[in-house]
Amino acid sequence: QQEKEDLQGKLKLREHLSQTAGKSEATPAPSKNSDLEMKQLQCKLKNSNNEISKQSTTIKSLKNEVQEKEERVRELQAKISQLERDISMKRHLIEDLRSRLKAHQENEKTSNKTLESLERKVKALAEDCSNKKTSIDSLKQRLNVATKEKSHYEQMYHQAKDELEKKELKLNNLESKMIEAEYAMTELEATASQQLQGLAKQTGQALETIQKKLVLTNDKVEEFVTFVKALTRELQQSVQELRTKIKRAKNLEEMRACKKGLSQESVQLAASILNVSTTDLEEILEVEDDEERAKTKMEFERDKEWLQYIQKLL
Q1: CA-CA 20 to 30 A from 220: which of 15, 98, 129, 309?
Q2: Closest residue by Cα to residue 243 from 304, 283, 297
Q3: pLDDT tens column, 145-187
Q4: What φ, ψ does residue 25 adopt, rounded to 5°?
């Protein structure tokens, strides 16, 4: 708010100065500056007004929050007072229950003493009865066990007899089968040894034939490699010879064309100017250009790369 008041005062001063400047027409430059300052101050006023409106909205929201929190605090205070009342009532109830517990505990002590004396008597009588019953039950159990054991041993005797007879029969059958199996095993061993010997001979012969074929194939491969190497070298040489022949033919054609265009007098004149004979001048004219030399070098390098590639493939 103080900034707003200061800005309003500055605006009033600027307006007063602008009015005075409008009256005096001789000085137009400062009036422009004052107008710019007026615009800046108006912008600042607008910004300050916006900030004041924002702060007023935040103050209103904070006030609403404070009111809500105060209401919450009141509600919580009312709940706390109710809880304190409940706690006081519960304390009174606990004290009453403690007093009743003490009275009941004293009554229980007296009743427990009488119960203990009665329980001792009942236990003594029950022990006498249980001892007699146990002695009778033990005698009955011994009789039952003896009769059961007798019947069980008889059954075991009959079962053992039957099992012995069955096992004797099985033993006889197994002995006969063992003899047959031993005879069959000896026959199988003999046949297997014969078959193994035949297979060993066959595998040895097959290995020898395979080794011979391998040697022959290796020889053929070496011959093929040498043939390919020789063929590539001859190809390269023939290509180089063809290129040189083509270049020579081209040079001869160019020289003939130059000789046709030039007369003998012009050739002699050029030789006299250069202090060179006519044959030397013809040799100078036959010299290749730099571009042709570069081309020949490139072609030679490509031929080398081609040879290297074929060697890698081999």
Answers
A1: 309
A2: 297
A3: 888 888 888 888 888 888 888 888 888 888 888 888 888 888 8
A4: -85, -15
